[in-house]
Records
---
Amino acid sequence: MTTKLEPKIPAGPLAEKWDKHRFEMKLVNPANKRKYSVIVVGSGLAGASAAASLSELGYRVSCFCFQDSPRRAHSIAAQGGINAAKNYQNDGDSIWRLFYDTVKGGDFRARESNVYRLAQVSVNIIDQCVAQGVPFAREYGGLLANRSFGGAQVSRTFYARGQTGQQLLLGAYQALEKEIARGGVTMHSRHEMLELVVVDGKARGIITRDLVTGAVEAHVADAVVLGTGGYGNAFYLSTNAKGCNVTATYRAYKKGAAFANPCFTQIHPTCIPVAGEHQSKLTLMSESLRNDGRVWVPKKPEDRGRKPDEIPEQDRDYYLERKYPSFGNLSPRDIASRAAKEVCDEGRGVGPGGRGVYLDFADAIKRLGESTIRERYGNLFEMYERITDENPYKQPMRIYPAVHYTMGGLWVDYNLMSTIPGLHVIGEANFSDHGANRLGASALMQGLADGYFVLPSTIGDYLATSKPDKLDASHPAFSAAIDDVNARTAKLLAIKGKRSADSIHKELGHILWEKCGMARNAKGLREALAAIPKLREEFWSNVAIPGSGAELNQSLEKAGRLADFLEFAELMCTDALHREESCGGHFREEHQTPDGEALRDDENFAYVAAWEYAGEGKAPVLNKEPLEFENVHLSTRSYK
Amino acid sequence: MRVLLHVWRQAGPGATGRLVDYEAADISPDMSFLEMLDVVNDRLTVKGEEPIAFDHDCREGICGSCGMMINGAAHGPMKLTTACQLHMRSFKDGDEIWIEPWRAKAFPVIKDLVVDRGAFDRIIQAGGFVSAPTGSAQDGNAIPIPKQNADQAMDAAACIGCGACVAACPNASASLFTAAKITHLGQLPQGQPERMKRALAMVHQMDLETFGGCTLFGECQEACPKGISIDTIAQMHRDYMLATAIRREESAIGGTG
Amino acid sequence: MERAGLLKFWDSSVGKKVVMGATGLILVAFVILHMAGNLQFFAGAERFNAYSHLLQVDLIEATWILRLTLLVAVVLHITAAYQLTMRNRAARPADYVKREPQVSTYAARTLRWGGVYLLLFIPYHLMHFTIGNLHPAFARGQAYGNVVIGFENVWIGIFYLGAMAFLALHLYHGTWAMFRTLGVARPSNDPLHRRLALALAIIVPAGFSLLPLSVMLGLVR
């Protein structure tokens, strides 16, 4: 019963596809747009920009977020910047180069046509954001400033201090609030989507829980858009916000939307290490620190207890410089992360639990002076000191990799529509444009490209062609979905066990981090696949959820999200086990070159793995979308 | 370490609340303040008691979700720091810690430490934006913006909307929040066409939401985790006065007043 | 119905503050002049009585214009202050169990009560030295003597000195706040710093206080 995946890639030369497609798509008459309603779930960069843009076009939009305000989505935490192929620096950038870098950076596991469109649209994003009043950094001449980022050879990253995500999100949020004031968007804050409603094979609405009153409500629309972010919190510890969850996309998966490449997760190399069992989340330190810091661990495991300044130079192992002489400390994210894991596995890691490596600025301070370093990284050093109580001017920072972003997500076609007609997925929630590894400063670009420019065009085509019937919440599909949600809530509340959801979540995170983290192997994945159902059983028999369903109940929210993570984790491991190759963030220990580098298998795995739910207790069905590379040449990434 | 907490517990919006004492033992100084509350909550949960409800999300000081009065100071004793970035090493073993929700008529308590900050969204709705529909923008470099203006706009735009300014203000005024947005957009050429309308509408909405007025105590600036200056309030007053004068002229000549 | 511009301005918290700032400016200017005028007391009875004569007789029309201006300013200042105070109280119906002021000054926190004290003081002061009905031995045209006799009662002197203490606090916060309220303060790295306000808050009340003090200490008789 496999679904035929139809990517609907327009024919014609790569550079003309989007233009041609926009002409070929059916339009909704301006007067008729008012007749169509769209639900947007999520108010991050993708969700907020989509909701605002759809409302500006004239659609009736309802937008939902679980936070108390649409301004709080986790897009806000992105520090570094947003890429765009403006070539303002005259350094040889172009749409083609951004396209090429993204496909190559993604280790050739992304769809060419989508990535090219992303690069095309990137230039409009910057213009749009400037017009909204986003205070991008400027040069003294008043023009936009750029910096290079994530190892790119050109300066194409636009930024607003270390708060680019915040400023872009506030731009989208303000556009959204403008549309709310105008009456085009109805905002539902503190509402969590708990079910997708499919009627006659089309996505026609959602069921939400009002997190303040506990009321379970049905919302009907002609199309549904999910901009609900990634699933990094499956690992419990990640750089994601505490509320980030897989529930919306996983519920859609269970209603028939294929989930693509769930094993593609990005581990960011420079995060502040775990300090103890109490740790609730991990904090990213900007990658830019690696420009001046040197990464090292002691050569001998017995030295790890010693103070770093007591370890003489000859007893230190600057392993990135040793292994990758040409890129050294600036090796890409996936490579640097794996190398850190390796040295810690050898027992040479530093700090609590031996899970950390030094990022040492002593040489840079000696060479450039403390004031230069303070100028460059002052705010990051302060943040580090606030969290660890250690002064990085005096002693090396300790860093360790952490889960940061998920490239996998619901499968979508060129129109950003999932395998369920009418269900569109945007931003990190879709599997999209980053292949097996995302480049720095590209997440913001993709979220806004989808929300401002791509979806508002493509959704019109869906509405104009499918002409959805009139429908209201009295339809049996809605009452059935409400019953499902209520039954699940009642079941959770009835457990009355002895363990908090957090304690079980930590255990799940530990399994995934060990077995499906930076390096995976078949044995470990099989162990995880055996352990997860047991933990799920423990959850369903022993979780403690005080309080009722008819009030603000954060324990219930956590448990509901964890219940979905506990199922989704299995899908992640299943995907990781099936992909017998190493690519990008997915490193299978069985598939490496003799010197320990990732070994891709283009022959057998140049496809998107889109998993389809087959029913309770049944193995998910694998659908493959072959990836064809007509414009870029498949090559091996090397950073030696 | 061990601390004694006095936490505001309130079952729901209309309910009467009270301070309840909790002892938090085995606390590590490396824990963040919210992680300390996590530990307390975990122990409550296992005992079948309702954990303390509080808003939080990113836990890296940028989303603006968290916020509570800690020992009488918004976000606690550390300057330029949100509650999630405050660490227990700021306290001593055996300390007593009072924890209360933000208190303002415009921020009604939903439960325990969770308040409704929807008033902030409505102030933004009144005019805290530039009307630039998607697709209508010209090239980003078409209008040069002096670096100084861009930097000042950024200083004001750093607001995370946490509500600490209101919480710390003896008058429960939202002046700093409102002024920060007026200043951010007012510093940029893109914000000029709607500048006067924005000042009038946002101030009007701020009053409608029942926030108090500004007496320039300066508490908001001190409490602001992003260090937004009360200079923005002077800017808001300037724009508001100018707007009143100009709008009167406009209506006199049959304009849009 | 949409209210007209100026009424809307008056309705708004910012508008009321601007009114307080503008009227405050008038009052600050007045106290500076008043204090400077008072110092002529130390130039002797003849000079001081002549100054009084100038204001009370020769320039009486101008004096009345000034008085009316001050009356309007005071009424607006107090009305706005009262209304804002009521709004501010209403903005936090349930107070904190524990709230620790971090940077607000004593001056800012006592501004309202100081205002009430000054409100009681001003009519008394007028009846004491201008109208004279609360003066034990008021003699029109004999300003110098009126002052000396007026402060012979120590309690009255103390009441005056109390008023000057509150005036000092009022000026310390009020003058600084006024420039910000009127939007004329330039951005500063340390906006809470107040030099001009401190100078005014010391000089003006000190100048005023010299009169009762000199009488009370027996330096002048």
Note: Chain A has two domains: 1-264+407-616, 269-402.
---
Amino acid sequence: MNLKPETLQRIEEVIPHYPVARSAVLPLLHLIQEDAGYISAEATEWVAARLGLQPINVLEVVTFYPMFRQQPIGRRHIKVCRTLSCALRGGYQTCAAFEEEFKVHRGEVSADGEVTIEFVECLASCGTAPVVMIDDDLHENVDCARARELSARIRAAAAARR
Amino acid sequence: MPAPAERRIIFKHIDEPGYTPDLACYLRHGGYATLRKALGMAPATIIDEVKKSGLRGRGGAGFGCGLKWSLVDRKSGKPIYLVVNADESEPGTFKDRYIIHQDPHQLLEGIMVSSWANNVRQAYIYIRGEFPHGARILEKAIAEACAANLVGPNVLGSGYSCEIYVHRGAGAYICGEETGLIESLEGKRPYPRIKPPYFPAVLGLYQCPTIVNNVETLCHVKHIVDVGGEEFAKIGTPGNTGTRILCVSGHVRRPGYFEYEVGRITLGQLLHEVCGGPLPGRTFKAIIPGGSSAKVLRWGETFTLKNKDGSTRTLAVEDIPMDFDTLAACGTMGGSGGVIVMDDSVNMVEALANINAFYAHESCGQCTPCREGSLWMKKITTRMVHGQARTEDGALLQGVADQIAGRTICAFGEACSWPTQSFLAKFGDEFRAYPAAKAAPRPESVPLA
């Protein structure tokens, strides 16, 4: 496993906070996904070995929880809330606007590898619907016009990096 | 009657200009004085005050907090854990988010007071994975509180020690169910446990006695110790004490969060006066009053309720006081306080298709009636919207929904079947008419599924 030294250090800090090492499965998977972008088969085995578990004990967690993924995604992750309060205020149209902007269907990575668009379930900000998370940041009241603004910002950031 | 004024206790400083989530700001506003006071009280006295307060849990079930605490096995010799349910994920609910992001020390103080009362030495905050900033804010707040000797070893020189640790979920709704949450905290799939024997108060985290309380509930505990249980019980209405945060979303002019004394505001006052009424040119049609699993109410319906003396009274939907007991008597629930409003632009088949997709996605898959039933309800309503709709689909849905509730390990079985059952009971005509309705143009509607 090729993890950054600071990830390894944080992993060692996390484990003693639980009387039973197995409890550290979720936090370790979060740390590894933040570092590597996804949970590889190697990572699953590494976590199992580190915590004294069978690999299946870790794999069953990875496959259950929606936030863990076994494949890499786009550089930016756009998560549009699909659930009722957001849908009532146009969440499906917001998602379609992002799909149009990046010419990619939800669940897929854009051709340039820049974004993955996903529908997710309730993000607990129903009063400012529709809401969207881009990476770790919540954006509120994202109608189609706002979705286009946010898309332009993502493209500008990508252009600046090149 | 005009709506009463908001009474902000938990949300006192939410959105207040200049109020920041750091310890210095919290201390400037009198923070942690209640913890000092609590450490001078006997733990049994605090539990007694919470019982006297009548506080009912704010996570969904409305179970008495003092009663929950009194069920804890204190003779086992095993450590007692406190687990904070910050997995806020019931659709329509968005209250704990603001406490966590804007006033984290209020929650920490509530945790410390509750931990002292219950002889807890280790508390975990289980926060939903979609709140990454919230988790960091809590971690920072805990570090500040530890540095100031308010959390950690020998709190304020009292000899009492308690650690708090933040544990992030990873996007699964079922982790809000307390035994599923415990499994998740143990590093497993969050399959809810069967009760008996796995009552958390006896066999919870690591098979030790465990208290699982909602974020808002623990903040209330701090205020109960502040003013005393009897004083707290004067807020709200008998049996429905304190304030609660009502979250309104969907088709109103001013959605948002509002803190009211429980039962002092009616649904009509909340939606018309506080939230500004329906959107221009529209009328209200349906209300889900307590998170998406609560049974739907039809705007315009009336209820015949029994009084204590055996007589009956008629209550219109807009006159329902937003308390636990009246909402239950009207066949629904106060749940998590999330009020979702739908107006006449909504076709109820499409709204149900949206809800069914949620529950099919979130069923943990452990019990067959729920795993299969939630999926079939989704498949049927999705086909109605996107494929062929038949007049008999309502009856088909009813047949599936009626075989889930009461046949599963946890309450998700009820949560996923109540929407279908109540939509059919209140809007059955719309299901029968859907094949014709979907063919007609409806420019006012947005896609819901």
Note: Chain B touches chain A through 59 residues (CB under 8 Å).
